[in-house]
């Protein structure tokens, strides 16, 4: 592997400047030793929301990246741009543009604990939109507690009211499902939050749920005998009763209760979770996210055998674009499910299964459906995937998927949208790739694995297009921006290509890690820096390419 730290040298002229020398005083040295531009704090913040900093990169550790990304947000807040940051948090969360909620929740907690009053108000006003399930709420509370130490003054009025609102504004039945499905996380429970936020709901059905959590089922059972209970209270009681009775029910009774009351996997005792009948009942009303998480288990118990009713239902769900959008399923979540299901075994434990090929194909198709659909631009694209050593180290968004694998998935998205494209893989040299839009992602990844690794030269795609006299309107480079190995900077290579080809070509740098660097010259309107694996990426690319 040819990765190394480049030496500091004096600035040379732009026409002959290697990447380990700066083009101008505005460039900075990246972790690999090459010179690039530093992205502004707002762009770095957007990258962090989409990509996080888990796992670090080949050159930068996770703690360092996490601290640098947090500092970018703190600078925005100090400049009075905190409310703008909160608006972005809400936008990225509600539109399902991020694969994991951890960076979203951490950023919201930082804003909520800031000393800037308008930022704090905006953050607390946003929690019911961003923190959709109790797990998110518990994580937010824990992060707020951590950020407040060692100067914590307890739960202030704004904090208490925001937590109260999270509970009291929910529909009673939905709240009952939430508190029984997600009971505790990060050392917090609902009872803890009720005690600290002093929740006092006006809605009798909400009061009923809170009493159940605090005092147990026996206390609400007595209340349920009171004449004249409202319909919401009766509905909540019947659900809570079913949850309690599920703890001792036999298999047939439990199947009936699942269908009648909408019980979910978390309500089912462990001893019943190896039973096909139970999973068949659960699948009937199973949410999309839960379905993808449990594909291996359902295959193992036999309800997803080829051409079975269960397999047909799962494939139909995965092909339903509206359901994917409504469930806010991020493409990366589908990619993880696809890779895990294809592997035929869980990352932890002893669970193993034989994958159903129809479900593999349905997951592959669902991956592309989960992105925002856009009309093709009909431009000519060169899709360049960085296959250097640094792209196989670390991971994306806290998963086992490497930046190179994620790059392949993003590149295939463009290939399935645009009719004119050409694939290449590059490190310190470039290799044309025999990849087409009809291939499944697994095939593409196997092709990439055969390309030799090396140092990183992100100018290679433009050099290749110039030498081969290819007509390219748009270069998309998927990389971690750890470039250093070339004899010309990528931005200069693009300018040379424009001059020699007569084409006003554009460059999109799709960053696959949340570092603060970019190859795109901020002074050149024909270059764009964007965070990889943003579910809105196709629309962002289209608008930039067409100058919208």
Descriptive overview:
- It is a single chain.
- A 6-stranded mixed β-sheet has the order 7-6-5-8-9-11, with helices on both faces. A 3-stranded antiparallel β-sheet has the order 1-2-10, with no helix packed on it. Strands 3-4 form a two-stranded antiparallel ribbon.
- It has helices at residues 41-51, 62-78, 82-94, 102-112, 117-125, 127-130, 134-148, 157-168, 172-181, 190-197, 204-215, 217-223, 231-245, 251-261, 276-284, 288-293, 295-301, 309-318, 321-326, 331-343, 357-369, 403-417, 441-449, 460-467, 490-501, 537-545, and strands at residues 27-29, 35-38, 184-185, 188-189, 381-386, 421-426, 430-432, 474-479, 506-511, 517-518, 527-531.
- α1 (41-51) packs across α4 (102-112) and α22 (403-417) crosses α23.
- The protein is globular.
- By secondary structure, the protein is an alpha/beta fold.
- The model is unreliable at 1-14 and 54-65 (pLDDT under 50).
Notable traits:
548 residues; alpha/beta; 50% helix; disordered N terminus; globular
How many angstroms does the end-to-end distance come to?
41 Å
Q: How much helix, percentage-wise, in residues?
A: 40-55%
What would the principal axes of the Cα set say about the shape? globular
Q: Kindly state the mean pLDDT as a whole number?
A: 85
Q: Which structural class do you get from the secondary structure elements?
A: alpha/beta
The share of residues in extended strands comes to: 5-15%
Give the count of helical stretches: 26
* Strand arrangement across the biggest beta sheet: 7-6-5-8-9-11
From the structure provided, what is the oligomeric state, counting identical versus distinct chains?
single chain
Tally the beta strands.
11
State Rg. 26 Å
- Uncertain stretches of 5 or more adjacent residues: 1-14, 54-65
Largest sheet: 6 strands, mixed
